[in-house]
Design goal:
InterPro entries: GH (IPR017853). By secondary structure, the chain is of the alpha/beta class. It contains 15 helices and 32 strands. The longest helix is centred in the C-terminal third of the chain and has 29 residues.
Length: 701
């Protein structure tokens, strides 16, 4: 509901009512306050007959304009939206922070204001984020909403009392030079659906974003079939063995299995035929990562009934894991967008799976990849046309330890006998049917376990989490036994750690809070490092032993480490044949300590990395984003070239094969453009061309 401005400023009440406020003709009841900014009150005509005034932010930490009532507060609707008419006066984007306050309470958002005509910035008066709509990144702004160019704040933090608004502040963070915007009316609107409209109709029948275009975007089935089945470049090499090993380099011992060997100053993987092999892999090569929830979000899709057809299904992704905890619209019917498009491009039929796998492997080999990374379709192993990897997923009723990070869940307790049994069972499942296959590169154990927490004290989180458990915890029992052996009596321990305990029972009790390591008590860090090493050693030695018992021929490729500590890396280097690390950085050496692994003299494989952009449909640029599609190939080359030059890295695995759905994948709402192919299964030609050139240099011409 909107009330005429005359009504508002004729009122003598201390609490103003819902209204439009025109800054080019400000009423006497409005107070304007600037800090390191100037407000020129001269009305300036804009399109559509409206007038705006110029607000210039000076170079300063937080230049701002604050609008507030001369007396009392503004009373706004609880379910309302604040709208501001603004125009960027600069030829480049300007970052605006908008803060709505009710006394000490604040509601804050930051938006990017692009150059162009006047637009309406809509700020919901309640906290929100794209996660509430089931995706990690919201749609780009602004968008054409009828005759209005609208910029909706899709991420808003904090909370206010809308019935008692004391101020609205518009600022920009520390500009390097003067920045000018034009600002006009401000209004609060009851029952606005601006936020919902930002997400309405954003996906077409092919799963593509509807409000923009790009070279690979298609409009009909005929175009989809033609482009998805386009001929591949001829890139066959005569200097590789059938596994992709380099016959142009000195041969090594052939064992019939993949293995590792150091030759000169660098480590290599070695093919079953005895040739140097740099693993150029792709993760998640499968047809099931294109699933996105439709139920509860039908308004986002041009054809929501697709979820009811042969490419629909049901899931429930609600979880307390960090990756899913705050994700909304996360259960019910889903639509498998990618599988739907594959069927369209191949015409359906009973053999579509086989044809798709053949086409996919042909593509990967043409782009000079030589390995299927983790999470790939196990059915590829039947074709034996490319090296592949297998995950060992350890599940069971064993004890777990929380670190506060817990992105994919809590840490398994390797001191628990039930963990040993679970490892044996998981290894038996993973090795079944593949232990005699020479095309198998090796096995990964688990994925991105929470070996550390977040923040500056994150290194100690696993030790602190263990001590917080009760005496029934096997990990706690081991740590306590170590502390008793190291310090003897509890008084010595209490002094060394600076804790007020008089018996070991107090330490053993559930809820014991370990102090953070500090200079005054160096024993805390020393003891926790020792325990973290014991923990990691027990985990990796248990897996390594079980795997070598079940399959003595293939490589143990480590645990795909993401959040980690030096103790974990050392244990992996000691027990795994290759330490696998997932890192999203511009260069490998910015993601892990290359020099440390040179000292350990052990090989490493980067098992996840990528570079994404936001100009091909999906809203996110991934964990490591670049400015545009053209920059992705350059970033890929820099990363892989540096990996090859390191001497200890024996492979790089790209994450992932297919772009994530616009509206977020079923697992956790990720929705980034990070694929080699789009959700339509059409390759990104410029990027794959650059990747092919880099791979040919890295893997051998």
């Amino acid at each position: 509901m909107r009330l005429p401005i005359a009504f508002l400023f004729a009122s003598t009440a201390l609490s103003a009512q819902s209204a439009t406020l025109d800054l080019s003709h400000p009423p006497a009841t409005l107070r304007t306050t600037t800090r390191d900014a100037t407000l020129d009150p001269t009305p300036r005509p804009a399109s559509g007959g409206e007038t705006l005034v110029a607000l210039t932010f000076k170079p300063a930490p937080h230049p701002s304009l604050t609008l507030s009532p001369q007396q009392g507060t503004w009373a706004w609707p609880a379910n309302g939206t604040l709208r501001l008419r603004v125009q960027n006066g600069m030829p480049w984007p300007v970052t605006l922070t908008i803060d709505v306050a009710s006394g000490a309470k604040h509601l804050t958002t930051t938006v990017g204001l692009p150059p162009g005509p006047p637009q309406t910035v809509s700020v919901p008066l309640q906290p929100t984020s794209p996660r509430a709509f089931g995706m990690q990144v919201g749609p780009p702004m602004p968008f054409e909403d009828g005759d209005t160019l609208r910029l909706v704040a899709t991420t808003v933090d904090g909370a206010i009392d809308p019935a008692a608004v004391t101020s609205v502040t518009v600022s920009t963070p520390q500009p390097g030079a003067a920045q000018t915007i034009l600002i006009g009316g401000m209004e609060d609107v009851a029952g606005s659906d601006d936020l919902r409209r930002a997400y309405t109709g954003i996906v077409d029948r092919y799963g593509q974003y509807t409000r923009s275009t790009w070279p690979e975007k298609i409009a009909d089935d005929a175009s989809l079939k033609t482009r998805a089945s386009a001929p591949l470049p001829a890139t066959a090499s005569t200097q590789l063995d059938r596994y992709g090993g380099r016959i142009d380099l000195p041969a090594m011992k052939a064992t019939g299995w993949f293995r590792t060997q150091k030759q000169g100053d660098r480590w290599w993987l070695v093919t079953p035929e005895g040739h140097a092999f740099f693993s150029l892999g792709v993760n998640a090569v499968n047809k099931t990562d294109g699933r996105t929830y439709v139920q509860g979000r039908e308004f986002m899709f041009a054809e929501p009934a697709a979820a009811e057809g042969p490419f629909g299904g049901t899931s429930d992704s609600r979880s307390d894991q960090g990756s899913q905890r705050d994700n909304g619209m996360n259960h019910g019917r889903w639509w498998d967008v990618y599988a739907n498009n594959v069927a369209r491009s191949l015409g359906g039929g009973a053999d579509v799976e086989t044809v798709w796998r053949r086409r996919t492997v042909d593509r990967l080999k043409a782009w000079r990849f030589n390995t299927l990374g983790n999470w790939s379709d196990p059915a590829f192993a039947e074709d034996q046309r490319i090296a592949y990897t297998v995950p060992i997923l350890i599940r069971g009723d064993f004890n777990t330890v929380g670190t506060g990070f817990d992105w994919w869940g809590r840490m398994p307790d390797p001191f628990d006998p039930r963990f040993v049994k679970a490892v044996t069972a998981a290894v038996a499942t993973a090795t079944k049917g593949v232990r005699d296959d020479p095309w198998l590169l090796g096995y990964f154990a688990d994925n991105e376990l929470a070996w550390a927490g977040v923040g500056p004290q994150g290194r100690w989180a696993l030790a602190a989490g263990t001590l917080a458990q009760g005496p029934e915890s096997p990990a706690k029992q081991d740590f306590l036994a170590y502390l008793k052996q190291t310090h003897g009596d509890v008084a010595a321990f209490a002094k060394a750690w600076g804790v007020p305990v008089s018996s070991w029972n107090e330490v053993a009790a559930k809820g014991f809070k370990a102090p953070d390591p500090n200079e005054a008590h160096p024993a805390i860090a020393g003891d926790e490092i020792a325990f973290l090493r014991r923990y990691a050693d027990r985990y990796f030695s248990t897996v390594a032993h079980a795997l070598k018992q079940a399959d003595p021929h293939h490589l143990f490729l480590g645990g795909r480490l993401a959040v980690r500590t030096p103790e974990v890396e050392e244990a992996s280097a000691a027990y795994a044949d290759v330490t696998s690390i997932n890192t999203y950085t511009d260069l490998p050496e910015h993601g892990f300590d290359v020099a440390a692994f040179k000292r350990l003299d052990k090989p490493v494989m980067i098992t996840e990395f990528h570079f994404g952009s936001t100009d091909r449909g999906p809203f996110g640029g991934g964990v490591a984003s670049v400015a545009s599609e053209a920059e992705r190939g350059k970033a890929y080359a820099r990363f892989v070239n540096a990996a090859v030059a390191s001497g200890v890295i024996v492979g790089t695995h790209w994450f992932e094969y297919v772009d994530q759905p616009v509206t977020g994948r079923v697992l956790d709402g990720e929705n980034a453009h990070i694929g080699l192919v789009g959700i339509t299964d059409i390759p990104f030609e410029g990027f794959t061309r650059a990747v092919t050139e880099t791979n040919a240099r890295a893997g051998g011409k």
